[in-house]
Amino acid sequence: PSSLVPLAAQCELPLTLKYIARRLTEDIEKNPDPLNSLLDLRQTKSTDFSRQVVDGMSEALTGWRKAPKPAAWNAFVERFSQSELTALSAKVRNLNVLFGDGRALEEVRKVVLDQTLDFSLRKSALQTLIDARAPGLRDLCEQMLNVQFVNSVAARGLSGFSDPAAGVKLVKAYRQFHPSERSQLMSTLVSRAPFASALLDAIGEGRIPRSELSAFHARQIRILNDPAVTQKLTEVWGEFRESPQQNQQAIAKWKSQFTAANLATANLSQGRSTFMLACAPCHTLYGEGGKIGPDLTGASRDNLDYLLENIVDPSAVVSADFRMSVVKTKDGRVLNGIIAAKTERTITLKTMTETMSIERADVESAERSSISLMPEGLLDTLGATLARDLIGYLMHETQVPLPAEGKIARNPK
User: Rounded to 5 degrees, what are φ and ψ at 74?
Assistant: First the structure.
């Protein structure tokens, strides 16, 4: 690592410099001297140098609750001009919290509460307090449940508290979440049995639409392995098909429905809208969507058999890159996703709604499954009309426009 410092002194490639800073920061506990030497280079370097170093340090420490402050850190920050510090203030402040600066902790709290600031700054600040497990975190997160766009992070903060009352408050706040961020709330609610129970009660009573509970969420609730909650899921949402024979029967059923004449009536724009809601969190098509699952742009989408086999029975053939992992944390949460990266200190888990770094010390177990992250039963939850529109869209050769505003249908079952 020490040989990276003279390389950084000559480096004019921003991304390479950021990676050097990230790599040296990963050794902050065992071998801090190279990082301190890198920070000392600030005396003769530009603003761009400082930005890349701070970015690299921030990436390296993502998911950490505490880290030792580098000996050269204060001098590094003091050399910033006012304009430089303003541009980097959020990340510098977050790193100060990580380094145990109590004054920085209070500054971050003020950022969260400041209604004049941009939502992205407030969300980043709240995440910093969550990572640090700051005093008063629960009260602050509950307060932020009423603030749209910040409340998605607040829900993540409340997920760390094993208390049924927290789940009830999350359910009551459902209408306060912007529709584009309700999926993140749902992911929190299915991570604990008491939370899931409150969610299912709300769905059963009509306070939350049944359509919000996807097949992915239903499977995660079953993985919680709570008999009472599983029974409630069956009553509210329905049965969960598991056997290969049933999957083959379902493929045959859908194939008989999706005739050429039937697919010719598909609303392709509505199919694209359904894809954005049900598939795009994981899959990319025409350059849009997530990176958790395979890119579908070049797949054999004109082949109905191919589509049905992969949608109805996604676990029949699963690439090693897309196998689901079930991570159980010591505070009682159960998380499903793909482990995207590992360091000595953290693991990075990609779920359908977010990418999170978790300290290994907080992980009780992480088991890799033979099944796909994609759940079974997707077409059943959509119903015949939306399923037809989705298949028609997937089989279409070119991109189509989204429906006009106000004309997006949701599970007309």
Answer: -60, -45
Comparing CA positions, the residue from 154, 159, 160 lying closest to residue 142 is: 154
* Contacts for 327 with CB less than 8 Å, ≥ 6 apart: 334, 335, 336, 337, 339, 347, 349, 358, 363, 365, 366
Report d(CA 68, CA 81) in Å as an integer: 25
Residues in the chain: 413
pTM, two decimal places: 0.80
Phi and psi dihedrals of 309, rounded to 5?
A: -60, -40
Amino acid in position 349: L
Measured in Å, how far apart are the chain's first and last C-alpha atoms?
Answer: 60
What is the model's pLDDT at position 212? 86
DSSP lists the bridge partners of residue 237 as none
Q: What's the pLDDT at 407? A: 52
CA-angle at 62, arms to 35 and 49, nearest 5°? 45
pLDDT given at position 215: 78
> Which one, of 216, 173, 245, lies nearest residue 352 by Cα?
216
| Residue 69 DSSP code | P
**Pairing state of beta strands 334-342 and 323-329?**
antiparallel
How many CB atoms sit inside 10 A of residue 313's CB?
18
Share of the chain above pLDDT 70, in %: 96
CB 16 within 8 A of CB 49: no
For residue 43, what are its two tokens? 């005396």
Cα 400 from chain centre:
27
Residue 408, both tokens:
């997006």
Asked if 226 and 198 count as a contact pair (C-beta separation under 8 A), the reply is no
Is the distance from CB of 218 to CB of 233 less than 8 angstroms? yes
